[in-house]
Amino acid sequence: MKEKFGYKNIMPIPKLTKISLNCGVGKANEDKDRLQQAVSDLTVITGQKAVITKAKKSVANFKLRKGMPIGANVTLRGTIMYEFLDRLISIAVPRIRDFRGFPTTAFDGRGNMSIGITEQSVFPEIDPDKIKSIQGFQITLVTTAKTNEEGRELLRLFGLPFAQEES
What we know:
By secondary structure, this protein is α+β, with helices and mostly antiparallel strands. The chain contains 4 helices and 5 strands, in the order H-E-H-E-E-H-E-E-H. The chain is globular, with a radius of gyration of 18 Å.
């Protein structure tokens, strides 16, 4: 990356700082067991205890009150982060049905990428027989890159498969 982007020093070369996994459980107020299932799935997948997230404000249309539990969140840093990224790229991504690569448009403008996983069963740690309900979650890869191009190149060098752009 130093030669490609013309860095004079190694310090501005982008790095992966954290990976955040977020699971929103819409039916958490109707079925408390579903929220606990999401927390346990995220904990098993990441190897780190998931935190229950609560609603920040009330929304009457969703029968939601401020402070109600609505999801689970895990933030990975350090060696656990790199181990999770390795398992994501080498084990989970090949198990996704009809996968043609991650879209190159999934970046936020500052080199961070968000990926949506539709079901938790792509990870081998989850036993498919014990799944009561299919639950998806979001994975956000946070980098120190300044642009999308730098972030995309960093993640490509890590081995993340991107979809081929049609010309």
